[in-house]
Amino acid sequence: MDDTEWLIAREVPGLRRYARALVKDRDRADDLVQECLERALRKQHLWRRAGSMRGWLLKILYNVHVNLIRHHRRTPETTPLEDVSVTQPARQFGHMQLQEMAHALDGLPAPQRETLLLVVLEGLSYEEAACVLDVPVGTVRSRMSRAREALQSLNLDESRPVTVRPVTLRPVTLRPVTLRRVK
Amino acid sequence: MENYDDIHVLDLHAYIDDLLDPPRRRAVEAYLAVHPEKAEWVRRCRLQNDAMRAIFGPAAEEALPGRLSSVFKPKRPSRFPGLVSRMSPLAATLLLGCGLGWSAAAFLPRHEVSTQVLRESASLAHTDVRKATVAGHLAPSEPMLRPIQWVEQASMVDLQIPDLSRYRFSLVGSQVTATTNRSQAAQLTYQDDLGRRLTLQVQPRLPDPDPEIETETRNEVRVAYWLDGPLMYVMASDLPRDESLAVAESLHRSIRKMPPPEPEPEFGIAKRLKSLLWTRG
């Protein structure tokens, strides 16, 4: 594995996390990541160390995602979140709180959700997120603001009683997705 | 009475996302201390952030499925692994380079050479630190984060200052230092409760571009030039030397922070065509 491949491989866990947040289904998320990695390895000469590897890979991943959505139905495909895929709830939250949060995120318009998750989950700056999403930085700020306002009605609080129950992933029936390269 | 007119909602968002520089962060914290309703809003937003990380964070901890790890195909193993491993790296390189007619660079154990340099350099640096300990002083230290930021910029890898508090070591000094092969490394010095010191050197794994910008006068024109990865930049101007250097440094920084290139050609013209078709139904 050469240096660039090593740098790409290092970002795979983060790519899986963002892909999972985008499409919510494990297999489809890994389809996205796989396509992203194959493209990145083919086009690694284009990176040229100008900008962060994470930002570059997330941009590829996001573009693959957008292409797939356009290819399928020309409307954002939302998969109902059947269950929160956490095995251990975070210390300060109960499972129900996380599930409420997951459903609230699901209810956000796709652009707001994608932007919020890029910044919060992947730790991108607003400028980097703007570059990944190919929008002005002002749009990123505006989406962040609207997304946060929309989530304010959630009752997330450490003081709420925490009820923890074992979580199992329920199978989600989805149309099979085949990745097709755009010519 | 403090004036908080310059604190806007955008600052609060950037504060929630840890994107403010330290002075601005302190200003926002002072503002929040006297605006409890805003502080509550910020607290709720931070809880949202924590919840999002709790929901999706575990995906990054899972073992990679085979189809993803197999994307990184291992290089074809050498046909002479035993022979090569028993020889010195240089001899192995020469033999393989001549015998197979391949590029020696492909076989040169560059990282081994690089770690040798770093090991040598770190041991020498630690000898200096040890002497400084005996003399009761430390080498001059730079701002703690700077060496790490330097590694991050040189390698494009996100790093954090390693926390050794578990072993009762705390960071007492940091600097970017020259190594024995004239490259550079970040050097962090830790000290424990007993006064023992530990030196950590970190060098970018990628071949480091020459960070120095050189200037010269050629044909009565001031020229500044520098290397950055595979590219070489030359800036010619009528500016005096210092100003030329400052402009070149600014240029160098802005070039390195340029947005990444488009990853796929199809996202260029094809993308615009598609979006055109798209908007026209």
Brief rundown of the structure:
The complex is a heterodimer of chains A (183) and B (281). Chain A is an all-alpha fold and 183 residues long. Chain A has helices at 3-10, 12-23, 26-42, 53-72, 95-107, 110-120, 126-133, 137-151.
Please mark out the parts of chain A with pLDDT under 50 across 5 or more consecutive residues, or reply none: 162-174
Intertermini distance of chain A = 29 Å
Most extensive interface between two protein chains, with residue counts: A-B, 76 and 60 residues
Helix content of chain B: 40-55%
Q: What is the alpha-carbon Rg of chain A in Å?
A: 17 Å
Q: What best-fitting shape of chain B do the alpha-carbon axes yield?
A: extended
SSE class of chain A: mainly alpha
Q: Roughly what percent helix of chain A?
A: 55-70%
User: Beta-strand percentage of chain B?
Assistant: 15-25%
Gyration radius of chain B, in Å: 26 Å
Mean pLDDT of chain B: 69
Instruction: Please give the oligomerization state of what you see.
Output: heterodimer
Order of helices and strands of chain B: HHHHHHHHHEEEEEEHH
Q: Main β-sheet of chain B, in a few words?
A: 3 strands, antiparallel
> Pairing-aware structural class of the strands and helices of chain B?
alpha+beta
Mean pLDDT of chain A: 78
Distance between the termini of chain B: 58 Å
Low-confidence stretches of chain B: 76-112, 257-268, 273-281
What is the helix/strand order of chain A?
HHHHHHHH
Structure, explained:
The complex is a heterodimer of chains A (183) and B (281). Chain A is mainly α and 183 residues long. Chain A is built from 8 helices and no strands. In chain A, helix 7 (126-133) packs across helix 8. The longest helix of chain A is centred in the middle third of the chain and has 20 residues, at 53-72. Chain A is globular and about 45 Å long. The model of chain A is unreliable at 162-174 (pLDDT under 50). By secondary structure, chain B is of the alpha+beta class. Chain B contains 11 helices and 6 strands. Chain B has a 3-stranded antiparallel beta sheet with strand order 1-2-3. Chain B has a 3-stranded antiparallel beta sheet with strand order 4-5-6, covered by helices on one side. In chain B, helix 1 (9-16) runs parallel beside helix 3 (36-56). Residues 76-112, 257-268 and 273-281 of chain B have low confidence and may be disordered. At the A-B interface, helix 1, helix 2, helix 3, helix 4 and helix 5 of A face helix 1, helix 3 and helix 11 of B.
